[in-house]
Automatic annotation (TrEMBL):
GO biological process entries: carbohydrate metabolic process
Provenance organism: Vicia faba
Residue ranges of domain Beta-galactosidase galactose-binding in the record: 321-388, 470-556
Lineage: Eukaryota, Viridiplantae, Streptophyta, Embryophyta, Tracheophyta
Pfam families: BetaGal_gal-bd (PF21467), GHD (PF17834)
GO molecular function: hydrolase activity, hydrolyzing O-glycosyl compounds
Domain Beta-galactosidase beta-sandwich: 96-151, 214-269
Protein name from the UniProt record: Beta-galactosidase
Amino acid sequence: MHVLNLTPIVALNCEVLDKIWFGKNVNGEASVRPGRAAAQAPPDHASPSRDGDLLSMAIFQHTIPLRCLWYLSSLPMSALVSVDPTVSWPGKNLEVHLYKTSFGACAAFLANYDTSSWAKVPFGNGQYDLPPWSISILPDCKTEVFNTAKVGQLPRLHPTMLHHLAMEIFYLWPYSDTPYRCGVEFVVSCYVHQVFALVSVDPTVSWPGKNLEVHLYKTSFGACAAFLANYDTSSWAKVPFGNGQYDLPPWSISILPDCKTEVFNTAKVGAPRFHRKMTPVNSAFNWQSYNEQPSASGGESSITTAALLEQVGVTRDSSDYLWYMTDVNISPNEAFLKNGQYPVLTAMSAGHVLHVFVNGQLLGTAYGGLDNPKLTFSSGVKLWAGNNKISLLSVAVGLSNVGLHYKTWNVGVLGPVTLKGLNEGARDLSKQKWSYKTGLKGESLNLHTATGSSAVKWSQGSFLSKKQSLTWYKTTFSAPAGNDPLALDMSSMGKGEIWVNGKSIGRDWPGYIARGNCGSCNYAGTFTDSKCRTNCGQPTQKWYHFPRSWLNSGGNFLVVLEEWGGDPTGISLVKRT
């Protein structure tokens, strides 16, 4: 990491910083701003700073301290984010926070908590005088650049003088040169004198036509700024103002910082849209599969009780998965066994996903949404006479961390769970005996690791499982050459989790489809989230990134857990260009 040495920068003082700010390097030569050729850099003789001597102007004597503070305070960022502070108390009501890294970056905050007396704070090789109840910032652990009690010591200048100085400075070149003098991001600051109009007077508001509105800011010392608005959502408008007319697109506002020149219109931003390009970088993966069987009552379980339990209270967040298992006995005399009108199994869950298995077969899946994670699964179910195994696999997709009393929000099957269509009518399964098992078998065997994967027999070739729930897939691949970011295109899969060399890159859910209308795009009028939608009918996410630093130079181990059922042959490794 390159660390910027603050000492020479502080010694050069703020005049140097202003030369940099206004397009000059530390030698006073014209500097080149990012994205602009050297031949286009403005020559020194065109500079409004009189050979860079910005300190000779009163207006810059006022503004320099603020810019220097911002600049200098931003320099020790590497120290602030790299280490925890060392805190010391060199005296009564005194405190020092020191940030110092092994690579030389250093920053310090000195505090005087006394509410009435100045204090001399010993630090480093010297002492620092701090006013009562104040903090000083030393971005290089030597030079005090700011104290919270000394803000009011900045010079105060009369607005009239500021206006005339601003006029002198900023009208020395045509408006078209403004971005080159101040940088595109500082165009607004080049109209300092117009700011005084905005903060010195209340606007005069007029309505020159239907759906048109003008806000005029004009001071007694000549500063002027205006905002023209067209509130029509479908038609352009000619807005009369001053000695001319201005064409405004529908639902837009134009800014005239000098009451003459339109420098910005909200509908003419024309921001470029960047479309990422994802390119496959390898041949098809050679997959192997392992099918996990649904857990059932009577097997290994952690808890058995005559109640439905909250999921996280059982799993303690050790797994996203919790099995709810029970038995249902069906009499041979049940009418549905003869007429084929199968009973309906209904299960209500607090969220987030529920897979329902009956006698080892997947009956169906339901999931909640962002607005309401709760869900209800209901489906006809084919049962046979005698004992039937009901297995509900509840899946959490994360824990709530925001919202009113979010710690009390529940996850899992809390019921009721009912079976309707029996001779007895409806049977409430909620209060019968339930068994619980945390996690999947593949999780306990660590199938996502190269070592753990050897614990089971995998299928491949023509025996490869596709479109089957609770299936594990594994393969190996070589790291592609280059430094382009890498990702997996998972659009052929449903929902699950991905591991690269034993490290989880996260849960994937390409089966979650973006709904809505992706028609024409028009932002005019009151904004709603239904405007200008894209990629309707597509997965909300199909590319899943992983860092190159996780890859080995040789073979790499890739494992995918698929909950719903997908086709692994559609997975591809892609790079972003």
